[in-house]
Give the backbone structure.
Amino acid sequence: MALTTKLIRLVLTASLLLVACSCTLVVPPPTGTPTALKLGLLLNYTGSPEASADRERAFNLAISHANAGGGVLGQSVTGITADATSDPQAAVAAARHLIEVEGVHAIVGPNASAAALPIAETVAGPAGIPVISPSATSPQLSTVSDNDFFFRTALSDAIQGLVLASLTRERGFDSVGFIYVDDAYGQGLAVAFARVWDGRLRSVALDVNQTTHLEALRESAGSDAQALVVVAHEDQALALIRTALDESLFDQFVFGDAAKRLRLVQEIGGAHLGGMYGTAGASAPDNDATPEWEAAFIIGSASEG
């Protein structure tokens, strides 16, 4: 809980500060009543409901804290949510709706790199609307044509790939299968991993809509793979692990950050996943507000439950 809330707190605090600063810089000094700040939250509620629910709770809590302190420019901050789904085209449409119909001044999200890239290039950048993602990690986002309106609080996978390869080696493996989702996230992490990995590697790409995984698992296992490195989102990661275990192809796994979901442990079980490792974002540094924030988040979560 502490890790999740600290990361969310960092994302939303940064976004609120960013929006306040951007309004001051790009909007002429108000001559009348300032416009109330409106923030959009664009997450994959369909594909990652639990993680999205946690982030929405933190989003609302950050807004309530801002309003308790007087709001922005004397006006209350409001928020509105939209479902990015797992489809980049649907995410673009949702972002366009938030900006052009709902009139948001900034967007927190989306979760995925595959959605963040077209949103930054075709919607937010041209509109001059800041977008800040808590988890879009593709290296392509470092050079995206966004008119400097895309931001993220997660490190690029150019860094995560190095850490994932180091972790895999530290686990004692020198020959691994590597299965990744064939989108901006998976491609970037696969390239970064392969660049620094010095052992044997059988890398296989999965289509984002692929529902059967046995052939890919057999190809990645080869004849000597000691473990499977899983770089896939929640549903595909779950299907991969279940099939690998059922077919006795792998019983050792290393996970990229997108697979870090409680649901995997709940459905696969600790007997199979106990002792497995993966990469994830680091906890935000504590500050004087940390205890109050975490207490408020926990109380809010308990009241919803």
